[in-house]
Each structure stands twice: as structure tokens, then as C-alpha cells.
Model the fold of this input.
Amino acid sequence: MKYLKFHICELLGSMFLVIAAVAPMILFIEVLGSSLAIAVVADALAVGFVLFALIEIFGPICTAYFNPAVCLALALNKEITIIQAIRYSIFQIVGGIIGVIAVHLMFYDSIPKVLEISMIQRSGGAYLGEILGTFILVLCIMSLAHQKSNRVSLVVGFLVGGMLVSTSSTMFANPQVTIARIFTYSAAGIQPTDAIIFILLQFFAAAMAFFTWKYVISNCACPIDYSK
Done:
């Protein structure tokens, strides 16, 4: 019970993050009749803006992980225990699934579906996209936390929004988001077999980002003076 408020914040943040990731793909394509290209750009803006706000809202309370891959990196760095990482991840996954249900209920009048297993294939270059997207996200978070930066929300929001339209996978970079997107009929979905591969690659990339951060950045006591 001691950490229940942290878990609830993780659940709420994960829920609204998934809403931001899934809703634009239904609103723009299914309701407004726009092209997929416009919907992807709208999705990038929505995720970037909402993620910035969520980190500002929940960061002072629960540090706003919203991502099991980030929890893995923090556990490797011994900032949280493995048990804590698992607990956070469970609440994040539950929050993400609630987010998908909430999105579908919002558009139920137009599309009367609550949950549906996605059949959208994401393979090939999308796998590399997930490695790159997750790697830079976790490296960014670890580096900013190490620097005690007060711009975490802004930088992470810009990074995620930018990488969403820069990667072949449209940057899931988050196991709980990946799980949630299995259950949507929208263009944001992913079929279960590809989702399993995505999740494995996300955890692999998070571990690689941690070790890169540990070797390259965390051991730097001060910036290099190139004038010498």
C-alpha cells in the first residue's frame, strides 16, 4: 500500500499515453477520412504533446516511467529493484489496455467495437526501427536523469514525437504500448506475433542503451574542454 499512489500514477500515465497513440489513427482515418500520412503526423504531434504534459503532471510524484523498458534500465542501474520494476510494469500494461478500451468507447458510435485483435503486420525494417527508437529513448532518459536536467519532459516529448515520424515502425519503443496496440482495430495496431518480437527487441535495446550510457556518459565527471 505504501507505493500504491506511484502505481496508480503509472497506470494513469500509461493509459493517457496509449490514448494519445491510438486515438488520432481512428479520428483522422476512420472519422475524418484523412490519409494515413496525415494521421501519422497528427499522431506524432499528439504523442509528443501529451507525453510532455504527462511527465510534467506525474514526474514529481512517481517519476513517470510509463514504460517497462525504462524500468528494466533503471533496475539494471539499481535505482529500483527487479520486484519494483515488475510491479510498475504490471500497472503500466493494465493502464495501456484501459487506454485502448477508452479510445474505442469514445468512437463506439462510429465503430461499434470495444476490443479486436489486430492483424496488421509489422516486420522487416520495423524491427530495426524498434531497436533504434527504444535505444535512443532509454539513452535520453538515463542521460537527462544523470544530468539532473529540468527539461526531461520537453526533451522526451520532442524526441518521441520526432522519432515517431522518423522510424519505420513509427516508434512503439514501449512494451506496454505494444501490448495495448495488439487490441485495437485501428492502423496503430500490431499483430500478436510481431508484438512479441517488438517487445523482445525493445528490452534488448533498453539493455544496450543502459550499457552504452554506463560506459560513455555516466563516467564523464565533466564536459570535455575542446579548447585545450
About this structure: The domain at 4-217 is CATH 1.20.1080.10 (Glycerol uptake facilitator protein).
